[in-house]
Design brief:
The chain is mostly helical. Helices cover 45% and strands 0% of the residues. The protein has helices at residues 41-53, 61-73, 80-98.
Length: 100
């Protein structure tokens, strides 16, 4: 696994950037009633949280650089027991999720 290859994060829509779909647009002067949508307070909270988290990096770059340096110098040691335990727990989680 290479750790020096990075990918750019996917762009996220900002509040106010969403435009109505043109296929649902009513012609001007139409006698049909319009539909209104009310978003819950939870939706507003999620948008606030999303905007706060969007600037936070998802990877600790200094930790990655530290591990990369340790690998290059031959100092990095893998705890095979911890890796095995994590793999077993991941498989258990996937099995229990698929049985729901």
């Amino acid at each position: 696994m290479k750790i020096d290859k990075t990918t750019a994060p996917l762009p996220s829509a900002q509040i106010g950037e969403l435009a109505p779909r043109s296929s649902n647009a009513k012609p001007a002067g139409s006698s049909e009633s319009s539909t209104s949508v009310n978003l819950s307070a939870a939706s507003a909270n999620l948008r606030t949280i999303e905007s706060g988290v969007s600037g936070t990096p998802s990877v600790n770059a200094s930790k990655v650089a530290e591990i990369k340096q340790a690998i290059a110098e031959g100092r990095f040691q893998v705890n095979s027991g911890a890796v095995a335990d994590s793999l077993i727990n991941s498989v258990k989680d996937m099995i229990s999720a698929s049985q729901r």
